[in-house]
Write a structure and sequence with these properties.
Blueprint: H1 3-12, H2 25-35, H3 41-47, H4 52-59, H5 67-77, H6 81-90, H7 100-110, H8 116-125
Length: 134
């Protein structure tokens, strides 16, 4: 085998955070849970205020989580910006720079504002009372 080619392939199948690009949403979520010390799924879905049934559906890949649910998970975990972007990408979402709502969310994450009530307060201040994270 070509060691240089093996190294090249390994480097290009990982994202900036060193995570495998082929991972599913669920696989990456479990990786983040391990990183942030969640040994029990119930601890995370309770902190994120997600029902056990919805969590089960997400984990079993029966349904894609909504952006709102993804953001609840992001804030409950307290992930950094890159991890947030990658988790959202795995679920088919992005926080575009052209969207003020997305910029508020990104601001909160970059400034480590993980309290949902504080984030919702910021959203309300900028007229997004109909788009709160609930």
């Amino acid at each position: 085998m070509n060691k240089d080619l093996d190294k090249y392939i390994e480097q290009h199948t990982k994202n900036r955070a060193g995570t495998d690009k082929t991972q599913s949403f669920t696989e990456y979520l479990y990786e983040l849970m391990d990183k942030y010390g969640y040994k029990n799924s119930a601890d995370l879905y309770n902190k994120a205020n997600i029902s056990r049934q919805l969590w089960s559906s997400i984990i079993s890949s029966k349904s894609n989580p909504s952006l709102n649910i993804c953001l609840k998970i992001v804030f409950a975990l307290g992930v950094d910006t890159h991890e947030c972007k990658y988790l959202l990408k795995k679920a088919g979402y992005t926080l575009a720079s052209s969207n003020k709502y997305a910029l508020i969310i990104r601001y909160a994450i970059e400034n480590k504002i993980y309290d949902i009530y504080e984030v919702n307060k910021l959203l309300e201040e900028y007229g997004y009372s109909d788009s709160l994270i609930i």
